[in-house]
Amino acid sequence: MSASASTPTRSPSRRARAPAPVVALTRERILKAALDLAAEDGLAQLSTRRLGQRLGCEAMSIYHHYPNKHHLLDAMVDHVVASFEAPPPDLPPLERLRRSMHAFRAAAHRFPALFPLVAVHRLNTPTGVRWIESILTLVQDVVSDPEKAARHFRTIGYFLTGAALDETSGYARGPSAADPVDNAFVARECPRLAAASRYFDASQWDATFELGVQTMLDAVQRDAAAESATRPTLNAARKKTRRGR
């Protein structure tokens, strides 16, 4: 009995895999990658070399879209500013101002790694100056005097910047002494600090921030009320002057 020759089974030929599609390098892709890197590793670790590695391109390719790192940082700041939630336009000016202050704080918490740069940036880009103009407009809708409106704008800015920096990268995360005092020392030497410290906890931040917001708005409202009180007197004086001519 003769054995039949076995025919080797051929495996089906594998189809050649199509090359992965090349994703175009755009300003938007670069910006998103930069924001992600800053959020993950901190702004200090952001470099075009690391950005290129993340995007799968040479660092020099990034310069076709952003001339230098400074331009990229400006775009990152603009991204944060553009994320500030605008209040509904039908609300009273004072309430819109309150909501704008809360929106600033919320953005700081969304971008904690980037906020130290936002806080000290002059915001002298088109996006930045338009936002500044919008807040000045809100203040001046309440207090018409240009000087007082400008000063209220600045004091609100001082408060917001300090509060947001403190909550995102300040006291709780700031540098500590090489040999810090312990709780027993604070209780013994600084009883008022020991008693107040419970209100410094993160769980108390909302109430403290709202107190600061209300303090700022009360000052704006006081000047608005003073303007309203003096307006009839000024109008009467103008009428009297016209009659005397």
What does this 3D model show about the protein?
This protein has 245 residues and is mainly alpha-helical. Helix content is 65%, strand content 0%. It is built from 11 helices and no strands. α5 runs parallel beside α8 and α7 crosses α8. It is flat.
Task: Produce the secondary structure layout.
Layout: H1 27-41, H2 48-55, H3 59-62, H4 69-82, H5 93-110, H6 115-120, H7 126-142, H8 146-169, H9 183-189, H10 191-196, H11 205-244
Helix pairs in contact: 5-7, 5-8, 5-11, 7-8, 8-11
Quickly describe the structure.
By secondary structure, the protein is an all-alpha fold.
End-to-end separation: 139 Å
Beta-sheet strand percentage? under 5%
Count of runs of 4 or more consecutive helical residues? 11
Structural class: mainly alpha
Q: Low-confidence runs (pLDDT<50, min 5 residues)?
A: none
**In percent, how helical is the residue content?**
55-70%
| Secondary-structure element order, N to C | HHHHHHHHHHH
The value of Rg in angstroms is: 30 Å
Mean pLDDT across all residues, rounded? 89
Shape: flat
Largest sheet: none
List keywords for this structure.
245 residues; mainly alpha; flat
